[in-house]
Amino acid sequence: MTEIHTAGVTLLTGAIAPLPGSGRPSAIAKTPVERPLALGPEGLEGDAQADRRVHGGVEKAVHHYPAGHYIRWRAALGDLPALSAPGAFGENISVGGPTETEVAVGDVFRLGTALLQVSQGRQPCWKLNHRFGLPDMARRVQQTGRTGWYYRVLEPGIVATGDRLELIDRVAPDWTLNRLWRALHVERLNRHELEGIATLEILAESWRRMAERRLASGRVEDQRARLEGQA
To answer: Which residues does residue 153 pair with via DSSP β-bridges, in sequence order?
Structure first.
């Protein structure tokens, strides 16, 4: 089994507040938490999501964003205030090491006494545009593939900043998050890849349904509402 090692993680949570530049409620701004936290089926103790239609839930219980991506974003965008500390992308876990290239859907990790499983990649939304003060930030995140990913919680437990992610099992190692991203956002109508995604049972249902719709229609869905906040 491929070895994936991490240093101690930083855990982050956020409260609902008006989103600067928008005024709409959001909990995208996350800040580090030093004390141990309970991790349950819908996420970390003390963490909130403003729009439960598209954020949170059992398939998006915990958001992981690789800390190394911040270096690349600073190189591309300069020293934006949002990039000065973890939490800019709404992540609950920040740690160096593995990225979308190594991590696959279905990978199972131990963190503290909890057990997590990668459920899907992250589809960035328009709130990142306001978070960074850039009208196309969500689209930039999608185009680069530096999206981060979500976990479902297989076993609740207690987790803390400084705990290490330990890879326990790999269910679908060929389906890295980078491969999923490429299939859905680069080779967007590749039938072979879409058929694989549609039947990948370990993947979150919403992603499988997206692949099914593309196969049935031969078209890519309109993403403007998600990326730009347009109706």
So the answer is: 116
pLDDT digit of tens for each residue in the chain (231 aa)?
466 767 899 999 999 999 988 889 999 999 999 999 999 999 999 999 877 676 779 999 999 999 999 999 999 999 999 999 999 999 999 999 999 999 999 999 999 999 999 999 999 999 999 999 999 999 999 999 999 999 999 999 999 999 999 999 999 999 999 999 999 999 999 999 999 999 999 999 999 999 999 999 999 999 999 999 864
Q: Which 3 state secondary structure label does DSSP give 104?
A: strand
**Which of 2.40.33.20, 1.10.287.1040, 3.20.20.70, 1.10.287.3510 is the CATH number of 10-172?**
2.40.33.20
Which amino acid belongs to residue 71?
I
Q: Which one, of 133, 111, 109, 118, lies nearest residue 178 by Cα?
A: 118
- The whole-angstrom distance between residue 43's C-alpha and the CA centroid of its chain comes to 13
Are 172 and 106 a contacting pair, CB within 8 Å? yes
Q: What angle do CA 217, 218, 222 make, to 5 degrees?
A: 80
Residue 106 region by backbone torsions, left for phi larger than 0, else alpha for psi between -120 and 50, else beta: left
The one-letter amino acid code at 7 reads A
Q: What pairing do the DSSP bridges indicate for beta strands 93-95 and 62-66?
A: parallel
Handedness of CA 182, 186, 187, 188 (dihedral sign): positive
Q: How far is CA 210 from the centre of its chain?
A: 17
Q: What is the pTM of this model?
A: 0.95
